[in-house]
Write a structure and sequence with these properties.
This protein has 329 residues and is an alpha/beta fold. 39% of the residues lie in helices and 13% in strands. The termini are far apart.
Length: 329
């Protein structure tokens, strides 16, 4: 087992490994057999949080959604390890980006996830996307009902704007409803809009942050270089952060050079350094990164025990300009 520290999720009794394993690839590019191997290696290293959703991986031919949850649930059943895991999933995007967080749908989707995961209680249930067509009062009341029934322990938000997080917190306090304890937001060395848009709000509300695209769809692993557009289902997306090759500009190459240097100094991987930089940010509780193989996972795991110096953290920050929002006065 790893000796890496575990980090508390704010306002809960949950403690999680600093690396959250991305389960989006399970049932998509990773079948059950290979997923079990990755999950075994992750748990063996001390990992206890896997990021999944009822929409993973709906978009593969023949799938309907929930395939990732089913694989994770079957793995926990066969290994008898449910009590060692923080069971977490997301709902609300299975049938589109709006209308998925009405109270009846929250109940229906959550109960379907419980069945696929093979558990009686979900430790951390996320709203996958902000449903602006449904009043936040109804959404929060729908989640709160599940908590009161013991089907969910804590709730969180994914991809919510800062003002909506603030509004949700105010409504929860006013209506005496359960409130979000964490948020999933886009954040990495090459996508730092979060610092300008969300950092003040999450600090004020005391939210834990779980960044997604923490490795910029693979760019921050270092495997995408000029002349070596590594084969990936992501490399054909039209925009960043989903297409890692779009970071291969002057700034991206400068950052890769610094990442190489820091990784060499610590005798570790570029992936681990990229994740360790993110984990050095005070708001971040665990960084989400996926692995299709045990070998890929091995490149990520050192991040949980890697401490960068303040000088290295700053050097990496200065190697890449961040986002236009950060450059505004």
């Amino acid at each position: 087992m790893s000796t890496a520290a575990v980090n508390p999720i704010a306002n809960t009794d949950l403690k999680v490994f600093p690396l959250c394993l991305g389960g989006n690839v399970f049932g998509w590019t990773v079948d059950q057999h290979d997923a079990f191997a990755v999950l075994d290696a992750f748990a063996g290293a001390g990992g206890n949080l896997v990021d999944t959703s009822d929409v993973y991986w709906k978009f593969k031919a023949g799938n309907t959604g929930g395939e990732s949850e089913t694989i994770i649930g079957e793995w926990m059943r066969r290994r008898g390890c449910r009590d060692q895991m923080v069971v977490s999933t997301k709902i609300g995007a299975l049938h589109g980006m709006t209308g998925g967080l009405t109270a009846p749908k929250i109940r229906s989707y959550a109960e379907a996830s419980l069945k696929r995961l093979g558990v009686d209680t979900i430790d951390l249930l996320y709203a996958h996307v902000d449903d602006t067509d449904t009043p936040l009062e109804e959404t929060l009341a729908g989640f709160d009902a599940l908590i009161r029934e013991g089907k969910v322990r804590y709730i969180a938000a994914s991809r919510y704007d800062a003002d909506r997080l603030s509004e949700a917190a105010a409504i929860a306090e006013r209506e005496n409803l359960s409130s979000f304890v964490a948020t999933q937001s886009l954040y990495s060395l090459v996508e730092r809009q979060f610092e300008a848009s969300h950092s003040e709000v999450v600090a004020r509300l005391g939210l834990s942050v779980m960044p997604y695209y923490a490795l910029a769809a693979g760019f921050l692993t270092g495997k995408y270089r000029p002349g070596n557009a590594a084969a990936s289902v992501r490399a054909f997306a039209e925009s960043r952060p989903a297409n890692p090759t779009l970071y291969l500009d002057e700034h991206g190459l400068t950052l890769l050079a610094v990442l190489d240097d820091v990784a060499a100094a610590h005798r570790t991987t570029v992936s681990a350094v990229s994740l360790a930089w993110l984990l050095a940010q005070s708001a971040v509780t665990a960084a989400i990164a996926s692995a299709r193989t045990v070998g890929q996972l091995a490149d990520l795991l050192p991040a949980a025990e890697l401490t960068l110096s303040a000088e290295e953290v700053q050097r990496l920050r200065e190697a890449y300009p961040g986002s236009p929002a950060l450059e505004q006065p």
